Amino acid sequence: MQTLAPRTLALLAALLLPSALPANAIPIPPGLNRCPTLAACFALLDKTVPAEDDGSMANEKTLARDLRRFGEPAKQELLRRAAGNHPGWRNLAGAILMEWHSWSPADVPALRAALQKQHGGWVAHPLAEIGTPEAIAFLVEDLAQCEDIENQTGWALTQLGARPIPYLFALLANDRSARLAASVLSEIGAAAVPFLPKWAETATDPGQPTSTRIAALRGIAALGPTAEPDCSVLHPLLNDHDPNLRGQAKETLRAVRDPAVLPELAQSCRPMAPLYESLAIDALACLRDIASYGKNAAQAGPLLLPFLASQNGAERADGIAVLGASGYEPAIPKIQGALNDPDWRVVYSAIRALGWLGASGALPELDRLATSHWLPEIREKAAHAALAIRSEKSHVDPPPGTKFIAPPFGREDGDEPLDVDRWVLHPAKNCPANRWQWQGDQFPMPNPTRFMQESENQPSSLRLSGGELTGVNKGEWGGEFSWHPDAGQPVTILKDTFIAMRPDGDGAIVLFGLDHGLDYGYALSVTRDGAGSWKTQEIARLLGEPDGLATIRPGLFAARSAGRVVVFSSAQGIQGLATCDSR
After folding, report:
1. Cα–Cα distance between 73 and 55 in angstroms, integer?
2. Which phi and psi (to 5°) does residue 22 adopt?
3. pLDDT tens digit string along 100-141?
């Protein structure tokens, strides 16, 4: 399972901080800044504090400012209420104390008492401000009571640099708390690197208790690839007589991307996705894992070559990307052959891989694609790769292994190494009239919104000799395309999200696809053989979920996806992109 990217975890932590004003903010009572006594101020607040802890924390800066004029008595009263039995006051008092900023080590016991009443609460911030060994120990103590580190205690510990690390080590020996400690260590990052030699020494010391050695291995694993140069001494543990130690050593070496465990990982990475599967998730996961080993992943190259012959286009594209990024040069001839693949995703991936490999022998083919491919982004990518190969540098820099560890959320750069889809495309130009032309033929496309509503709300049927083809669109829940003969039982031809179909001789052209974060689409030619059995053949891999289908003339069709209209033939596949008819 993929873990959260560090920047995502940081964002989640930041969202917990008082940077935004929640809708249920506790209001500031009128006159709070003028009440003559501390008791009078708290009496005003008593009228606004909710009975329950509703997470309200806004206005805490103003509330702290208005109460701070009463000095130490105000702080002590807030500490008392933060550790009291009133849930609403515990939350509010903690939020105000987070903005108090006048602390001493003498306050640590009271803050601990408050944190024990509200694990992961706001008073973790004052403890981090104090930062004494006792304060840090209490923060780590509280972390062990939390479900995860997406709370104030977790965030506070990540802000303390290396200081919490000796205290976190004890948590690494326990299966439950180890996950929490490792998450904090991962966020601390580089500040923990000086501990690596000691942890490696502990992990390999047979005189240490097994639990301590496992804790050291978990600490190393938490730092990921940063720790890889220090881990060769751990290799003998892969053959240790203790299965727990052996298992944790393997897990640690995988976490740091040590090549010693790469052969076993690669052995289990095989193409297995069905023909029309849009997201080959099993292959994507293991290929991403292998690619995260950087140039060391080339050791797995021979075992990854079967991906280039996969029946599934996503697997072919992803396998090519990993072979190219790892620098596995023996794959160049097969990758060059993929430049003729009918699936544009495979061609795009092959161009990038050949650029990363500096494959000068592919230049004639890259030049051809740069001028003749139907997709502009393919032409652009091919020209870029050819230019780089001819340059003094002679290649395109491949992405580092760390690029593959966790997928970038949103893929803002549009060049995610794996899972090529519409994100690599430029925004499409709008065609307001929805009229298009192709080699002298003008044709309309349906309104995309209406087209999709009709597709999702009612089954679609096409009458042919002997029965009906029927498609059902269930949106994100999938769909089904089937044959309903006039006599006999229905036959399911394909289970996928059906979009639309048009007659094509004694068969049909059928669109499938879905957005919902996947955003895939393809067109099938569905025909009957001599025995009356239905056969399917992909004739167009589209740019995303299709939202329009039209017949230009017999045997020639157009499907709109990602704002562009792809023209394809039932006999020859994709012909090109239609242009907007602006007349």
Report:
1. 25
2. -65, 155
3. 999 999 999 999 999 999 999 999 999 999 999 999 999 999
